[in-house]
Design goal:
Layout lengths: L1 H15 L24 H4 L2 H11 L4 H32 L5 E7 L4 E3 H7 L18 E7 L9 H15 L11 H4 L1 E4 L5 E4 L37 H5 L1 E3 L12 H15 L11 E5 L7 E6 L2 E7 L7 H16 L23 H8 L2 H11 L5 E6 L5 E5 L2 H8 L1 H17 L2 H10 L7 E5 L10 H17 L7
Parallel strand pairs: 6-7, 7-9
Antiparallel strand pairs: 1-3, 2-4, 4-5, 8-9, 10-11, 10-12
Helix pairs in contact: 1-4, 3-4, 4-16, 9-10, 10-14, 11-16, 12-13, 14-15, 14-16
Length: about 475
């Protein structure tokens, strides 16, 4: 993969920058093996076998165990191929003077699917012609350090083809076998980007998604989408959250950015699942403490408040999904007013609806690391790390904090946020998830185990957790069409 990518990029550089391009001398040790994950490949490729052994130890049949192991191997292999490609692109780009290419930018109230497919591609031709009569796409020139390849937005491209497949029973990667201009329209929805629907429907925002997440039983309204949702908000989740004001508790009312983050989170959730009940009303406030991303506060069976820190470093959209996950755990799943994952318990009950999800969590290396940290002596150094500013520090484990991170209810908050991000194809949430994927938050590991507390899961580990959440929400009758 590294060699093929390097050869491909060398050809592109020669075509676009013939006078300045020079042969690529790639250091394969920097783009393969341990360089991909900073983990010995022998350890990485032992994981599928551990998956098999773990399944067998829990009484699963050999067929089930080997299927799980094969799935894990497929995921690891696909991830490594992609990592080799991205590492090669970065290495090659650092040695080149840059490239210029063109893209189609969507413009106007709506866009056909054919134009949307075109907007996911990069082109070398400078003067692109309209795709069809009435096409209002804008052609833009982009200067970059490297060529991103033909597809520049894989998530959007896959989402278009999936919706066409769901609606018509077929799809064409070339966008020619089916008239994509006629069956899909992209309605602009504020900062969350295009939302796909069909020409004979009118999109009225996330509120159109009923309890099953796919439009409910009522026909779609012809009322146009409102720039600012009415006070009762979109759907059971949105209608339960209102803007709090200054009160006896000296709370800070939500800023515009706080509300934007919450609305973005609700819209992403609505693209994945619906609700089957009305939820309690709960006020939204702005979290002002710099060390807190957000808080869902409850007292007994009552929901008290929701706080979101709008600062960029707090990843407000992803944090909002996380805290809404706690809200749903408390009021939207199982018995209202009871945390379905438990309160301060360390395990999930075997008869709980969360049991299979919890089993999937415990099979991940991320959670195993947290359990190991819980047993670690706070007097013993866990790791030596280098902070982004160059400071060398000893990292000692806080048992209190790691116990908090390992509790099922907190694990569910993080898993729910990652599940919504990946299943909704939301670019803002995915970017924030990527930033949180580094447990050291920018710190480099010098010696020891990890540079910080592991929270979110690598994609290959999370696949099984995501599948378990799919099954859970399907069992609850809440899962919409992905």
């Amino acid at each position: 993969m590294a060699s093929l990518t390097a050869s491909y990029l060398e050809t592109l550089y020669r075509e676009s920058e013939a006078d300045d391009a020079h042969p690529i001398d790639l250091d394969f040790d920097a783009v393969t093996g341990r360089a991909l994950r900073d983990v010995d490949p022998e350890e990485v490729y032992r994981r599928p076998f551990k998956e098999v052994w773990n399944a067998l130890s829990k009484g699963e049949s050999l067929d089930v165990a080997t299927t799980r192991g094969a799935h894990r191997l497929d995921t690891i292999t696909a991830t490594d191929l992609q990592l080799a490609r991205t590492h090669t692109v970065r290495e090659v780009a650092a040695d080149q003077d840059g490239v210029t290419y063109t893209v189609r930018e969507l413009f106007g109230e709506y866009d056909c699917a054919l134009c949307m497919i075109a907007s996911t591609q990069r082109y070398h031709k400078r003067d692109l012609q309209p795709i069809h009569p009435g096409c209002n796409c804008i052609v833009k020139t982009v200067s970059a350090d490297y060529d991103p390849g033909q597809i520049i937005d894989e998530a959007k491209l896959e989402r278009i083809h999936e919706l066409v497949q769901e609606a018509t029973g077929q799809s064409d990667r070339g966008g020619r076998a089916i008239d994509y201009r006629q069956i899909i329209i992209a309605r602009k929805h504020g900062e969350i980007g295009p939302v796909l629907t069909f020409q004979d429907h009118s999109f009225i925002g996330p509120g159109a998604i009923g309890p099953t997440g796919n439009g409910g039983d009522e026909p779609p309204s012809t009322t146009p989408a409102q720039p600012n949702p009415p006070e009762d908000g979109p759907g059971p989740l949105g209608s339960s959250i209102f803007d709090g004001g200054a009160n006896d508790h000296d709370e800070t009312p939500p800023t515009v950015r706080t509300r934007q983050a919450l609305d973005h989170a609700i819209a992403a959730i609505a693209r994945v699942h619906g609700m089957d009940r009305e939820l309690p009303r709960i006020p939204l406030y702005t979290e002002t403490r710099p060390d807190y991303g957000g808080v869902y506060r409850r007292v007994g069976d009552e929901s008290v408040l929701l706080r979101i820190n709008p600062a960029p470093y707090a990843h407000p959209e992803l944090t909002a999904v996380h805290e809404l996950g706690h809200f749903l755990d408390h009021q939207g799943i199982g018995e209202p007013g009871v945390m379905s994952t438990g309160l301060d318990n360390d395990e999930v009950a075997p008869d709980s609806i969360f049991a299979e999800w919890w089993d999937a969590v415990q099979r991940t290396d991320t959670h195993r690391t947290l359990r190991m940290m819980k047993k670690w002596s706070p007097k013993m150094r866990w790791a030596k790390i280098e902070q982004p500013n160059g400071t060398i520090e000893d990292f000692y484990v806080s048992r209190e904090y790691v116990s908090y991170l390992a509790r099922p209810r907190e694990v569910f908050g993080r898993a729910y946020a990652q599940w919504i991000a990946t299943r909704s194809y939301d670019p803002v949430l995915m970017e924030q998830l990527h930033e949180l994927s580094d447990p050291g938050m920018g710190a480099k590991l010098i010696t020891g185990f990890t540079a910080g507390y592991p929270g979110q899961w690598p994609a290959e580990e999370f696949a099984e957790i995501a599948d378990a959440l799919d099954e859970l929400f399907e069992q609850l009758g809440l899962l919409g069409k992905l």
